[in-house]
What we know:
Number of helices: 2
Oligomer: single chain
Distance between the termini: 26 Å
Structural class: alpha+beta
Radius of gyration: 14 Å
Strand content: 35-45%
Strand order of the largest sheet: 2-1-6-5-4-3
Order of helices and strands: HEEHEEEE
Largest sheet: 6 strands, mixed
Number of domains: 1
Amino acid sequence: MPISPADRLAIHELLALHGHLSDAGDFARFDEVFTDTVSYDLTAFGAGVVTGRDALRDMALQLGDNNPLAHHVTNIVVSPTGADSAEALSKGLAVNTDGTTGSVTYADTIIRTDDGWRISQRVITPRRKPLTP
């Protein structure tokens, strides 16, 4: 099923907005990015699955200064899965307060809601070894 250029652009902007809101600590606007029941899988980091937008906000607030200094998203590939759903695969780069950086892969399930496209599920996988899927 094809996806319109307008929807594709909206999804790209949705993924970019997450980093801007996170870096600004503007978690009150997470409703512009995530469904209220989002599943945010941090299992690869030992943090399990965070369920719900409020729980995701609370986790970020609890991390405080241990959050990355900056989030960047790139290499976005959108694959429609239905008229109102898509999967997005992207790369994330984080800059930490100590100057170190990290790279992750985001695997997102995105759905069209009454308010626009929102992430309903995100799985984050750290990149720790070259040439691995």
